[in-house]
Amino acid sequence: MLRAITRVIRLPYSLRCLFALITLCALWVGWQTSIVRERQALLNLVQDSGGGAYDLVSTGSASSPPASISFFRKLIGDRVMGAIMLPESLSERRDQIARAFPEADVWPQELFLPADFEYKSTMPMNYSLDTFVERPAGHP
Predict the structure, then answer these.
(1) Which residues touch 29 (CB under 8 Å, ≥6 apart)?
(2) Helix ranges restricted to H, the chain
(3) In the chain, is it the N or the C terminus that has fewer CB atoms within a 10 Å radius of its CB?
(4) In 3-state terms, what secondary structure has residue 54?
(5) What would the pLDDT profile of 34-93 be if each residue is shown by its tens digit?
(6) Nearest to 91 by CA among 51, 44, 40, 41
(7) Is 0.85 surpassed by the pTM of this model?
(8) Is 52 helix (H, G, I), strand (E, B) or coil?
(9) What b/e sequence results for 81-102 when a residue is b if at least 16 CB atoms lie within 10 Å of its CB, and e otherwise?
């Protein structure tokens, strides 16, 4: 008489560990999503107030590496900002914006543009710094 041999495969981790791992992953995704939403809300506030935000390829000097964000945050819509020009109406929120964008230089708009300058954009917040910088002859 041959008995059917049944083999029970035992996993080294329990279902409880799997649930804990899924919960930790969900918490991390929620945290990253809230960071991206806060940054997008602040960028919209800056743009609606008349300021500007510029994503630059490299914000560092030759001795410092360019700023970067994680692949996941890029995937959910975040981007590296190089410079943010704040209008005078948002000067009291400068610290909050600087904390949300540690990779960006946050400057008062008055340092770059005259007080009577009014820039109306038809583009989304993906400006090039060339919009405001006049290059000398012979430079690309």
Answers:
(1) 72
(2) 15-48, 71-75, 94-100
(3) N
(4) strand
(5) 999 999 999 999 988 888 887 765 444 444 556 678 889 989 988 888 888 888 888 889
(6) 51
(7) no
(8) strand
(9) bbbbbbbeebeebeeebeebbe
What is the DSSP annotation of 105-135? EEEEGGGTS-TT------S-S-B-GGGT-PP
| Separation CA 25–CA 22 (nearest Å) | 5
Q: How far apart are CA 76 and CA 6, in angstroms?
A: 47
How do strand 52-54 and strand 105-108 relate by DSSP bridges? unpaired
Give the separation between CA 9 and CA 1, rounded to whole angstroms.
Answer: 25
Q: Are 90 and 45 in contact (CB under 8 A)?
A: yes
Please state the φ and ψ torsions of residue 74, each to the nearest 5 degrees.
-65, -40
Cα torsion 79, 58, 102, 64 to 10°: value is: 140
Element (H, E) at 86: strand 83-86
In this predicted model, what pLDDT tens digit does every residue of 89-134 receive, in sequence order?
A: 888 898 999 999 888 888 887 766 555 555 555 445 544 444 444 4
Q: Please give the Cα distance from 85 to 23 (Å, whole number).
A: 39
